[in-house]
Amino acid sequence: MSARNRELLGLIPASLLVTAGFAAVFIQQGSEQLSDLSLTYGAIFLGLCVAAHVFLRIALPYADPYLFPLTAVLASFGLVVIYRIDDTLARQQAQWFVAGLLLFVATIVFLRDYRKLEQYRYLIAAGSLALLVLPRLPGIGAQVNGAYLGVRVPGVFVFQPTEFAKVGIVIFLASYLRDTRQLLVAGARRVAGVTLPPLKHFGPLLVIWGVAMLLLIVIRDLGSSLMFFGAFLAVLYVATSRVSFVVVGLALFGVGAWFLGTHVPHVTDRVDVWLDPFNAHRYPGVGYQIANSLFAQADGGLLGRGFGEAFLVLPGGNPLLPAPQTDLIYAVIVNELGLVGAVAVLTTYLLFVQRGFKIALLARDSFSTLLAVGLSAVFALQVFVIVGGVTNVIPLTGVTLPFISYGGSSLLANFVLLALLLLVSDRARRPA
Amino acid sequence: MSTPIMRLFGTIVVLFAILVFWTSRWSVLDAKDLRDNALNKRPLLAQLHVKRGAIKAGDGSVLARSVRRPDGTYGRTYPAGSLFGHPVGYAIVALNQLAGIERYRNDELSGQGDELGSLADQLQGKRQQGDAVVTTLDPAAQQIATDQLDTTGSPGAVVALDPRTGAVLVMASTPGYDPNSLNRPGVFRALNSADSGAPLLDRSTQSSYAPGSTFKVLTAAAAIDSGKYTPDSVINGDSPQVISGVPMANDLNESYGPITLTDAMTNSVNTVFGQIGESLGKQTMADYMRRFGFYRRPPLDYPADEMLASGERLNGKLLPVTSDQVDVGRMAIGQDKLAVTPMQMAMVVSAVANGGKLMAPHLADRIVDPDGRVVDRVEPRVASTPISQQTAEQVNQMMRTVVESGTGTAVALPGIEVAGKTGTAEIGTVGANLTQPSFVAFAPADNPRIAIAVTVERSQGGFGGTVAAPIARAVLESLLN
């Protein structure tokens, strides 16, 4: 069976999922409009996916056949969960989904030869850094929960530049390391028993990356900085095969994390709550979010309460679970679908990441490999940062769950990420 | 670059495995602890969506029911208002404030009894629904008890039991409160303040009083059952006499000369019972008090911390009868540091009425599921046998003479023989003339169906025979007709 036919077949479960999901929510709400409406939503979704698939058939015939259906499964699942939380948000998210598909198509059309991105690497790096600083600029920055995560576009939406910056920074890393990776290894010196890369070649990388990290700390987006840092180490490791670089990186990270965790009040709070999520004194304030995230998961158990059965609001209308459609959407999933549903979601992400790494293995040039590794790693780390935060593996920080959380910026940026992976894949698998 | 890529993917697989493990930890492994965490509002929210079962009186009238609100949650209403505020209690589910039967029977009322059944119901799409609790309470008698207590103008309590089964027929405490009012802000604090007379306090189980001469029923039972005395034993009834080193006087300092135990009971002769107390000794008195249920919370199906154990108390703590600080002679006439709940006094007379067998008191008669099936029935249970049947019969006879010709004539009912005992404990400073009038009784005396204890707080010079006995009479009359 050809790759594209496998992709088409893969879209069937996605459409079934969206139909069954909406049906379940309608049944729970005791709605009369069950039969046609859930089918209509399923049909529209299937239509959009098939359209994108036809486009891929023409534009990227050799691209990986599983990535797009996996994305469709995640996005349709996200739509159902958001619909269950708030139908107005779900309609907006559906519009963002359409916009995302258009951006996906545009990316593929305009970056047919994605390797020309390499020529613009410093421009891309500078642009990404500019994106990161935007939320702190007076007048347009928007502060949410003590972090400057968004740029307010009046009347339209709050734009989250880090989502796009993550793609840009990965492109820069991949491109820069393709050039210098051999120099980094050949010129490495052992200092006090630790192998360090030569500063001459490592310097520019360190500067760009350091500024990015600094900006993330300035805008207090710690979740994203963790994600960026991890992706940086991942690409560096694959480019150089040097574990020692990773060890040094992790050590630096440890020092940085310790400093932030003990000196910046906003971070200290989060660390305290992480260490003791059920502290009664902190519960009414900073501890409320994580404690209720864990309570929601406990309420779900093995099989969950069922779609639409979880408690999200208190009598009187105040939220029981804060930000259920964005930061804590994973807690809602565990609450309603249980451990089983959550493992299914994580498995879907892992399959997506696995396809990304497969593409990296198949790629025929270093830039393509490093780009695929970087994009896959940053995607996997985003899942780890938010799910790890919601389950208290690490302190909770606000990043989105890719393709599932509500949010236009996240959806658009991840569609660009998907488009790049498929572009690399098509080139790698194209018969010579 | 393929080896690092494989290793990197391996690392990510490990990270995801950590996520799976941590999710399992919260959702399955530690889930029970999290559900029980005091900060967790979800179990409460779930209960708000459960239709609690009704609480009903013995005649089937509804004392508490759940009403669906527009938002899908349920609110609780109490059709009887303040009448059953104390035994029924209240359930303000949103605040996790529960009391009384609402609290003791919460599992049944909220339908948490049967996990397997609720899972089957869930699969069928049935909403969780609680079972109803049918109590043994008698609304007409409860009304009369409450009205009668109200007319005294002082706080007080009435407990009436069926001595044959332990069924609680009346459990009244004044001042009362309306459980319907509790969900309004500020009401709780107002009701708990001293100015309002602390109406949330259930005086039948949570307040303990000096029982005064009503305690002579227990002293007489111990005296006869121990074999040291018979109803015909003759004892010196002069007044005053030195008991435990301090002179003790009879009412109006009346001297009776040599007098039988029965006559001493009829006329409530303090000096006789003081001597008996001294002669039986602390150990014997302690044994009999324990047998009647003292020094333990009553075995009632009611929240433990809403009940007080009766006995000698010093600074709020129970003091063993054998302690040096106990004046056994004065304890034998219901004074000293005795602190006894009306429920405990009702249990004492109930055991005498029931031939020496103390039946465990109970408020619930049966639990009925939403389909009308009886899922549980409270069977009568012998809590203890404090005295022999013969002793019980003899004390019974002595208590009859109290009503026929002694201090308790005010309780006499036409055509029904009543056995009773008055009590007028002196409280407060000497000369303040503050009393705690009490009355205990059972009827019909030859085949007792009702045992009752009445007490009124801080009466200005009132007597058990004049203040408490008429209340007992009215309640007995209602229950026996």
Strand coverage percent of chain A = under 5%
According to DSSP, the number of beta strands of chain A is 5
* Low-pLDDT sequence parts of chain A: none
Largest interface chains and counts: A-B, 47 and 40 residues
Average pLDDT number of chain B: 89
Instruction: Quickly count the helices of chain A.
Output: 14
Q: Kindly report the oligomeric state of this protein.
A: heterodimer
Order of helices and strands of chain A: HHHHHEEEHEEHHHHHHHH
Quantity of strands of chain B, as a count:
23
Q: Numbering strands along the chain, what is their spatial order in the largest sheet of chain A?
A: 1-2-3
Radius of gyration based on Cα positions of chain B: 27 Å
Radius of gyration of CA atoms of chain A, rounded to a whole number: 22 Å
End-to-end C-alpha gap of chain B: 98 Å
Mean pLDDT of chain A: 84
Largest beta sheet of chain B: what is the strand line-up? 3-2-1-6-17-18
Give your account of this protein's structure.
- The complex is a heterodimer of chains A (432) and B (481).
- Chain A contains 14 helices and five strands.
- Chain A has helices at 3-29, 34-59, 67-85, 87-110, 121-133, 161-186, 199-218, 222-240, 243-263, 265-275, 288-300, 329-362, 366-390, 408-429, and strands at 141-144, 147-153, 157-159, 189-191, 194-196.
- In chain A, α3 (67-85) runs antiparallel to α4 (87-110) and α9 packs across α10 (265-275).
- The two termini of chain A are 20 Å apart.
- Chain B is an alpha+beta fold and 481 residues long.
- Chain B has helices at residues 2-29, 31-36, 42-48, 85-88, 100-104, 106-109, 115-123, 139-152, 187-192, 216-225, 261-266, 270-291, 328-332, 342-353, 389-405, 464-480; strands spanning 55-56, 62-68, 74-77, 90-92, 97-99, 132-135, 156-161, 168-174, 234-236, 241-243, 246-248, 258-260, 311-314, 317-319, 338-339, 358-359, 364-368, 374-377, 382-384, 419-427, 434-443, 450-456, 459-460.
- In chain B, the strands form seven sheets. In chain B, strands 3-2-1-6-17-18 form a six-stranded mixed beta sheet, with no helix packed on it. In chain B, strands 7, 8, 20, 21, 22 and 23 form a six-stranded antiparallel beta sheet that branches.
- In chain B, α10 (216-225) crosses α12 and α10 crosses α15 (389-405).
- Chain A binds chain B through residues 234, 237-239, 241, 278, 280, 283, 291, 294-302, 311, 314-315, 320, 334, 338-339, 342-343, 346, 349-350, 353-354, 357, 360-361, 366, 369, 373, 377, 380, 383-384, 387-388, 391-393, and chain B through 1-9, 12-13, 15-16, 18-20, 22-28, 30-32, 34-35, 37-42, 45-46, 48, 71, 73, 94.
